[in-house]
Specification:
three-stranded antiparallel β-sheet; alpha+beta; about 40% helix; 11 strands; six-stranded antiparallel β-sheet
C-alpha cells in the first residue's frame, strides 16, 4: 500500500484511511459512477470527496506499478501544483494505492467536496442561463491565466470546471478530474487554442471566448484566435462523431454475431 496525506490533514489520517477502507459499504454515492465511483464522507464536520478509480486492465496494472504514476497519485500531485500556482481546485487531502505482486489493484483520491452553483456544462446546455455572457467571459480570462502559468488541462471538458458565484458579479472557477495534465514553461498558440476544443460545439460561444481571450493575448489578432479556436473545435467534434459512429457499428456487429 502507498498512502500519502496532505500535511494539513495529518491529524485526521486514521479517519481518512477508515473512510477509504470502508468505501464499498459506507459513504453517499455522488454522480452516476459509470467509470469511476465517487462517494461523500464526513470529516470533522467537513464533507470530503473520495474517488475510487476503475480497476485497470492487466497492462495498466503493470504500468502503474513500474512505469507510470496512478491516476489517484497524479490527481493529488497535480491539485497541489495547481494550488501552488494560484489556480482553483478542491483541496487535495490524500491518495492511496493498493498493489499486488502483479501491479496496481485499486486506487483512491481524496479531496474536499465543493458545492457550486454550476459547471461550464450549464453554459452550453442553457443559452439563457443568468449572466451567461459575464460567466463565459470570466471563464475565458481564467483560461488565459491557466495558459500563462503553463497549465495544459487535457480533460478540459464541460463538466470539469466548477463555477462558484461570488459577490459583485464575480465568479470563481475550480478544475476537477485532474489526472491528465501537462505543465510547460511556455504554452504555444496552438496548445492554447487546442485546449478549448472540447468545451462547446457552439460557434457563438467560441466567438465570445475568442473575443475575451484576445483582450489579454496580444500575440495574435482576435480574428486569428477565433479562426484557430473554432478550427480546433470542429476537428474535435468531427473526431468525436467518427468514434461515436464506429462504436455504434461495433455494437451492431456484436448484436448480429
Amino acid at each position: 500500500m502507498n498512502f500519502k496525506v496532505n500535511p494539513i490533514f495529518k491529524n485526521n489520517t486514521d479517519s481518512i484511511l477508515n473512510s477509504i477502507r470502508g468505501f464499498n459499504n459506507t459513504g453517499i454515492l455522488f454522480g452516476n459512477g459509470d467509470r469511476n465511483r465517487i462517494k461523500l464522507f464526513e470529516l470533522n464536520e467537513k464533507t470530503i470527496n473520495i474517488k475510487s478509480f476503475k480497476i485497470p486492465n492487466i497492462v495498466n496494472k503493470i504500468a502503474y506499478k513500474y512505469f507510470r504514476k496512478s491516476k489517484a497519485r497524479r490527481s493529488f500531485e497535480y491539485a497541489t501544483i495547481l494550488l501552488e500556482k494560484g489556480i482553483g481546485t478542491p483541496e487535495p487531502i490524500a491518495f492511496l494505492e493498493n498493489f499486488s505482486f502483479i501491479g496496481l489493484k485499486d486506487s483512491y483520491y481524496v479531496s474536499e467536496h465543493l458545492v457550486t452553483e454550476l459547471t461550464y456544462r450549464e453554459l452550453v446546455e442553457i443559452p439563457d442561463y443568468p449572466n451567461h455572457d459575464v460567466i463565459l467571459r470570466q471563464f475565458s480570462k481564467f483560461c488565459f491565466e491557466l495558459h500563462e502559468k503553463g497549465v495544459e488541462f487535457l480533460d478540459h471538458s464541460p463538466g470539469n470546471t466548477l463555477v462558484k458565484k461570488l459577490e459583485d458579479n464575480k465568479y470563481a472557477f475550480f478544475l476537477v478530474d485532474l489526472n491528465r495534465m501537462n505543465f510547460h514553461p511556455h504554452m504555444t498558440f496552438e496548445q492554447r487554442m487546442n485546449n478549448f476544443s472540447r468545451l462547446t460545439p457552439k460557434k457563438e460561444m467560441v466567438a465570445v471566448m475568442s473575443n475575451e481571450y484576445a483582450k489579454f493575448y496580444k500575440e495574435k489578432s482576435e480574428a486569428e484566435i477565433f479562426e484557430k479556436m473554432w478550427q480546433a473545435t470542429e476537428d474535435f467534434q468531427e473526431s468525436f462523431a467518427k468514434k461515436k459512429r464506429l462504436k455504434k457499428k461495433l455494437k451492431f456487429w456484436k448484436s448480429q454475431s
